[in-house]
Design a protein that fits this description.
six-stranded mixed β-sheet; 24 helices; alpha/beta; 767 residues; single chain
Length: 767
């Protein structure tokens, strides 16, 4: 097609230039155009993966050295916004040095199933935790003038058939579980870009989903940044552009550019749609390359992220931050008899190849080339007399028998046995899901045989997704869930085991007894390219607590080397918000950190709601005997559910429990607050008998009328139950009923009177 110049071109660009500009140039950069410089992007989110020379064929090869921080699965267990923000800022410093404008993260998809192969990249089963910690990461990265890319938007909760599967999920579940983390970060932190996911949502590809990318993201949430595709997510460029997808990556894709030109010239696509995407690309470039006089709101110069060398980071300082983050990410699950922290003056057996060859990150597009790696074995050898035995090999072809026998012998002559086990890299990665949550059989056998000869056995787990602790849990007195800890994880493990750092991590996802107990078990990962989200809003602890299904360890759980007590829960409320204040005291003999968790237990409503939902958390550091006051501000959304009739958030009137918990299962304190919701919905002839009776003002009048003053059998007992759901219009068609209810139209007018509806809203308690 011959080049053409369009009179409608944005700021002098030809149609061909504009069509090329909304498709990438290579794996990690945008196209350069007159007045629009190149924007570079690189994978994250737990460290940079900058590929020299614009990458290899799949964009997955070697990369420049960068600090590998704990992946999201670990950082989430810190429950520490400030820590996550500092990690984000450190990543931005390295991005500036490497000439990177956009870091592709964070991933805030919900951990719907423990089997998802990419769970190590995601924060939590809870949208509030995901939104708060993901927001802190974005805040840290963007504080230095480097952009973030919030991903994967949306409902990308499995790797099986991830590019083709349709996530079939109802409106309420979308709004309450799978969208809130994105909404929170978009509206509070204003990420530069949002990355659409591979999958379809209720049959529509995310890349071509106008409701998702335009109506919701830009219309409701006021997003003013750029929407970029996940790498290879676009099938049809013109429908994707029309839906609101501004930039297709990677590039170049000549078929996409040519399709856009053809669609504009043929009238299929209004050129203004293309112009809008071009202006968003231009806006992103201007953010990444601000003019020298560009200042932020505080009068501080915004650093150009592409100016290599404008910010110099200390490799040792970033490694120290990675070590701090790793220590705060570990969750002490079990510590019978106070075995931890360990005494350095005792012979210790260190067993397990992971102690010598650590697994510290997941596989796939987020894999960082670390600046250094601290293994646990040398860190432990520096602190105590150690005897090591590998116990198993990372090569599955190696016979495990002699390795286990050697490990048992070493454990039998040691005071304490530290057993390092977990999931091998081949068992969890981007691109596929797990089929089991069990540890490898050789690891289970190693644990049990070592514990049989040494009752002082400590198990240290390395895994990106939740693993089962059965059947060996009760065989050992200590279990430390260390997740994947990044490049400084080995030294951090030593810090925690020997008490240099008190463990303070809390579970951001539940640990079930069995895979079969998880709410998505029968629906995950779907079939025939369709996955049904049949569990609805009952994901993770929302299901376990509501269905009274026991778990091995609940969401929010974690032990310390000291103890904490919550007291004096106080409430103040206005029409629009509630303030909860609680006092927390370190009642033990060591300094430590505690995560104060606030849950809301909903008032009765017309829809089934979880027993409790997390609505606030704060991590506090306290010395022995020290107390502090923690304050939570709860807006209307903390009490609301999504109403599919009004397609909006609804706070039913009634009494809500405000709970302070040590986990989602263990509630330490609670009190009640009353919220007044909106006036009842208008009643019509199509309303049911039950809806009319439920009206707090006219309901009692109607009840007396239909039951009759002298004849209790007119509509009593099971007969009433039978007609409760019958629409009023149909009930009146039964012989004689219409005469009995001749005053019903007047009663409906009274119920719908604005004054009556307002008064009813005050007194309604969500019956």
């Amino acid at each position: 097609m011959a080049p053409s110049s369009s009179s409608g071109s944005a700021r002098g660009l030809t149609l061909e230039q504009k069509a090329a500009l909304v498709v990438g140039s290579g794996y990690w950069a945008t196209v350069e155009a007159p007045g629009i410089p190149v924007v570079t992007m690189n994978d994250g989110p737990h460290g940079l993966r900058t590929q020299p020379n614009n990458g290899d064929n799949l964009g997955l090869g070697s990369s420049l050295p960068a600090t590998c921080f704990p992946p999201a699965t670990g950082l989430a267990s810190s429950w520490d916004r400030d820590l996550v923000e500092r990690v984000g800022r450190a990543i931005a410093e390295e991005a500036i040095e490497q000439g990177v404008d956009i870091v592709l993260g964070p991933g805030v998809n919900i951990k719907r199933s423990p089997l998802c192969g990419r769970n190590f990249e995601y924060f939590s089963e809870d949208p509030f935790v995901s939104g708060q910690l993901g927001g802190a990461w974005v805040r840290g990265v963007q504080s230095l003038g480097v952009g973030a890319s919030l991903k994967h938007f949306a409902v990308n909760n499995q790797e099986t058939a991830r590019m083709t599967v349709s996530a079939e999920v109802d409106e309420r579940t979308l709004r309450e579980i799978y969208l809130p983390a994105f909404e929170s970060i978009v509206t509070r932190e204003e990420p530069w870009t949002v990355m659409c996911s591979y999958n379809r949502i209720n049959g529509v590809p995310a890349a071509e989903n106008h409701w998702l990318l335009t109506d919701l993201l830009r219309g409701e949430w006021d997003f003013d940044g750029l929407v970029v595709s996940d790498w290879g997510a676009v099938d049809q460029r013109v429908p994707a552009l029309a839906a609101g997808l501004d930039l297709e990556m990677p590039g170049p894709q000549r078929d996409s550019s040519e399709a856009i030109v053809h669609a504009v010239l043929s009238g299929e696509l209004d050129e203004s749609v293309l112009d809008r995407a071009v202006e968003r690309v231009r806006g992103l470039a201007e953010r990444a390359h601000p003019s020298p006089e560009a200042l932020d709101g505080d009068g501080v110069e915004v650093l150009p992220s592409s100016a290599s060398g404008s910010v110099h980071h200390s490799a040792s300082a970033h490694h120290a931050l990675a070590r701090e983050a790793a220590a705060d990410s570990m969750v002490l699950l079990r510590n019978e008899g106070g075995l931890l922290p360990l005494d350095t003056n005792q012979p210790i057996a260190v067993i397990g190849e992971f102690a010598r060859t650590p697994r510290f990150q997941g596989a796939g597009s987020s894999q960082v080339n670390p600046t250094r790696v601290d293994a646990a074995l040398p860190a432990l050898e520096a602190l105590a007399p150690i005897e090591f035995a590998p116990g198993y090999s990372l090569d599955r072809r190696v016979d495990a028998e002699p390795l286990i026998r050697e490990a048992v012998a070493v454990a039998s002559r040691s005071s304490v046995a530290l057993v390092f086990v977990g999931l091998p890299p081949a068992e969890e990665s981007e691109g596929f899901d797990r089929t089991s949550i069990d540890l490898p059989p050789v690891h289970v056998r190693l644990i049990r045989e070592v514990a049989a000869v040494n009752p002082r056995t400590v198990v240290i787990l390395s895994n990106g997704g939740v693993v089962s602790l059965e059947p060996w849990h009760d065989d050992v007195p200590v279990i430390l869930e260390s997740w994947l800890l990044g490049q400084a994880g080995g030294a951090a493990v030593a810090d925690v085991l020997f008490g240099r750092v008190a463990p303070s991590g809390r579970l951001a996802e539940s640990i079930p007894f069995r895979l079969q107990d998880t709410p998505s078990y029968l629906n995950f990962p779907g079939e025939n390219d369709v996955v049904r989200y049949g569990e609805g809003v009952f994901v993770g602890y929302r299901y376990f607590e509501s269905a009274d299904v026991a778990v091995r360890y609940p969401f929010g759980f974690g032990l310390s080397y000291t103890t904490f007590e919550s007291s004096d829960l106080r409430m103040t409320s206005t029409r629009d918000s509630v303030t909860a204040t609680v006092t927390v005291t370190n009642t033990g003999e060591r300094a430590g950190k505690h995560v104060v968790q606030l849950y809301v237990s909903a008032a009765p409503a017309d829809v089934r709601r979880p027993v409790r939902e997390l609505r606030g958390f704060q991590k506090v550091a306290l010395d022995p005997g020290e107390s502090t006051e923690v304050r939570f501000e709860l807006d209307a959304r903390a009490f609301a559910h999504w109403d599919t009739r009004s397609h909006d958030w609804l706070v039913p009137s009634g009494d809500y429990r405000i709970e302070i918990g040590d986990s989602a299962h263990d509630i330490a304190l609670w009190t009640v607050v009353t919220r007044r919701g909106p006036a009842p919905v208008q009643l019509t002839m199509d309303s049911s008998v039950a809806e009319l009776l439920a009206h707090p003002v006219t309901g009692p009048i109607f009840a007396r009328a239909v039951r009759g003053a002298d004849d209790e059998s007119a509509m009593g007992g099971s007969l009433f139950d039978m007609v409760a759901t019958v629409p009023i219009r149909r009930l009146l068609r039964f012989p004689g009923v219409g005469d009995q209810m001749r005053h019903l139209p007047l009663l409906l007018r009274v119920a719908n009177n604005p004054v009556v509806r307002t008064v009813a809203g005050w007194f309604d308690r969500g019956r």
